[in-house]
Amino acid sequence: MANRVLAPLLCVQFLMLTACHSPAPGIQSGEKQLFAAFSQCNNAEPYRAAQNALMTKLWAQYPDVKLVIADAGQDDNKQIAQIETFIREKPDLLIVAPNERAPLTAVMGRAVQSGIPVICLERDILEPNYTTYISADNRDIGRMAGQFIVDYLSKKYGRPQGNIVQIRGLLGVEAEIARNDGAHDVFARYPGIKIVNDAVADWIQAKAKDRMTEALRANPHIDVVYAHNDPMAVGAYLAAHDLGREKEMIFVGVDGLGGPNGGIKKVMDGILAATFVYPLCVDKAVEVGNRMLRDPSFKPDKVYTLHSTMITQQNAAEAYQQLTFTN
Amino acid sequence: MKTRHSERPPRAAGRLPTGWNIRAGRFGAMRVLYRLQALVALAGVIVLAIVLSPRAADGSNIFLEAGNLTDILRQVAVTGIIAVAMTFVILTAGIDLSVGSILALGTSVVAIGLTRWSVPLGDVGRIALAIIAALAAGAAVGALNGAVVAGAKIQPFVVTLATMIGVRGLAKWLTDNANIDIGFGQDVAAVFAAFISRKVVVIGSLLVMAAVFWLVLDLTVFGRYVRAVGDNERAARYTGLPIARVKIWVYTLSGLLSALAGVIYAAENHQGNPNAGIAYELDAIAAVVIGGTSLMGGKGSVSGTGVGTLILGILTNVLRLNNVDSNVEMMVKAVIILLAVAVMSRRKSE
Q1: DSSP single-letter state for residue B179
Q2: CA A283 vs CA A175, A278, A304, B238: distances in Å
């Protein structure tokens, strides 16, 4: 008996699971309706969600452009399949935020070959299979963070010295490598600056809290926590707060997202001393993409490199206004 | 749940696993030895931790500081609470892959309840309502798991795989893909986070749940049924045990405790996070099997799961205190886990 009731229920559940992604758009004929396709590697990350929100907001200024966002759910195969579908639909512009370098290189090449203008967003691929690449420089961000920390310690002690806890993202990921290397480019010049604990928390706030707890137990004196993203910096703050030591050190993060749950708000609240905006790249992509759509003679640069902004108490409120988007 | 009475557990026809017989006598020598084996493994890891621990400036052992030992208990509380209920599921020869997603649902529901529901109940009432809503959501998903497993006779792996996916989607849908930060201001959520994240509450929740589930498993008829179902389901059926009811209960409890873990997670990390708890099912299953519970069902104990949970927590703690390279940390962990399991499973050859 129960089978008859439950089996259809389960089927419905599976249908709901599989059927909710990206309806393919029909390309409107007649009026000059333009079709911009955006292949997003993973909607689940807050950074990506902010990209989607800004992308939707900016394209909405152009009523003749229809934007479709496909979420690959952090899966290379899924993203390849979605781009293949887009190629068949012949969008006027294809924007790709690749999940990983190697797997996406070939399919983006096929898109270019089939005559679709392709913008590679934020993450590079192995070969220049794009019309233009809009990049953000993580190593530069690492250097800026490193310099901020050196300046802080120099002011605190009169010379650059002190104990740093570094909390790293997922090892081997470009952002983690570059944010680590950039900071170390700076730290290496000052022998008085020591990394007393080099923990890995895979970008996750809860893990950072646990790893920071151990760092606090093992190190009676810590000056700075440098975390590769803001949630991990907040996790470290919560660990120090639990032990009543949050005033002993400052917390520095990266990403600088807007909105009530982003890093900029945490700077405004005095939880983080600084964060470094990792550019969403979307405003540049829409600016360049819009010209590509409308001006056949426009030749975009092969690469646009965007720079970070440091957010501290001084400019946090202003940045919050600028970088908070809602759909 | 009923209390213990004179009913004997059903004997499996034709197959009498030694583990069952050992455990049947409450004060049997074998049983004491079995318990000791788990403790020997735990003691080994603790001794190792003491030896490896760095020293503080005054020469004292950092690992043994009360603060550090309670850190460990707090850190393992979330997985530990899930693992305790997972022990029951695995004892019935089932598995629950949806626990991590239910944890995420729990964090999301409690955060939404605290930040978006304005009910005129006062702080305590609003906190209670948010927690109850989260627990109810988790229990409901668990009950659904149990009902489908027992009613539709679909393998637990498949059923809970589906809910793992679906509930993750539900949590993301409810929160619109974003974390909900709570408790950084002075509102009701701050009261919630400050209270629930206190060590005594977090560790207390783990200890109370472990104690209750231990007693239920060892002293109640329901506990005997749980083992009997996993030991030999056909025999249990012939004996007339309420198999479906037992299964629905264990999955409901698993959902409930996963949501409780979610409530604690939300308080500790000041966030409702729809992406929380990914791969926690593996951590929980690892704690259960390291504790000597058989994935085939029927054999195992809550105390073993406690030991398994602690071994993982202590290892992570002492390796991090020493700032060991995290890749080396993983390799060291693998070796020590296998050693611990080897010590605990030697009884099988007896």
Answers
A1: -
A2: 21, 13, 12, 69
- What tens digit of pLDDT does each residue of B8-62 get? 444 444 444 444 444 444 556 666 666 677 788 889 889 999 998 988 888 889 9
The residue behind tokens 């009523």 is A63
Spell out the SS3 assignment of chain A: CHHHHHHHHHHHHHHHHHHCCCCCCCCCCCCCCEEEEEEECCCCCHHHHHHHHHHHHHHCCCCCEEEEEEECCCCHHHHHHHHHHHHHHCCCEEEEECCCHHHHHHHHHHHHHCCCCEEEEECCCCCCCCCEEEEECHHHHHHHHHHHHHHHHHHHHCCCCEEEEEEECCCCCHHHHHHHHHHHHHHCCCCCEEEEEEEECCCCHHHHHHHHHHHHHHCCCCCEEEECCHHHHHHHHHHHHHCCCCCCCEEEEEECCCCCCCHHHHHHCCCCCEEEECCCCHHHHHHHHHHHHHCCCCCCCCEEEECCCEECCCCHHHHHHHHCCCC
Checking DSSP bridges between strand A274-277 and strand B271-272, what pairing results, if any? unpaired
Angle at B345 between CA B305 and CA B155, to 5 degrees: 60
On whether any CB of chain B is under 8 Å from the CB of A238, the answer is yes
In chain B, which residues have their Cβ closer than 8 Å to the Cβ of A176?
none
Enter the ipTM: 0.73
Helix (H) and strand (E) counts in chain B: 14, 2
Asked whether the beta carbons of residue B269 and residue A49 sit closer than 8 angstroms, the reply is no
Which residues on chain B are in Cβ contact (under 8 Å) with A16?
A: 166
Residue of B nearest to A4 (CA): B152
| Candidates B163, B179, B324, partner chain A, best to mutate (most A CBs within 10 A) | B179
Which residues in chain B are contacts of A261 at CB distance < 8 A?
178-181, 271
Half-sphere exposure of A104 (CA within 13 A, CB side): 27
Q: Give residues 8 to 67 of A whose Cβ lies within 8 Å of B.
A: 10, 13-14, 16-17, 20, 43-44, 46, 49
Residue that has been written with the tokens 């209960």 in this structure: B249
Interface residues of B toward A, Cβ cutoff 8 Å, are 54, 56-57, 62, 65, 67-68, 71, 75, 147-148, 150-154, 162, 165-166, 169, 172, 177-181, 184, 197, 265, 268-271, 273-276, 316-317, 320-323, 326-327
Give the separation between CA B64 and CA B70, rounded to whole angstroms. 10
Q: Which of B148, B181, B317 has the CB atom closest to A260's CB atom? A: B181
Band (pLDDT 50/70/90 cuts) for residue A325 is confident
Chain B closest-CA separation from residue A112 CA (Å): 32
As a whole number of angstroms, the distance between CA B129 and CA B122 comes to 11
Name chain B contacts of A10, Cβ cutoff 8 Å.
148, 152, 154, 162
Query: What pLDDT, on the 0 to 100 scale, is given for residue B328?
Result: 87
pLDDT at B143 over 80: yes
How far apart, in whole angstroms, are the C-alpha atoms of residue B211 and residue B303?
9
- Rounded Cα distance between B82 and B90, Å, is 12
Min CA distance, B261 vs chain A (Å)? 13
> Whose CA is closest to B10, among B177, B193, B185, B224?
B224
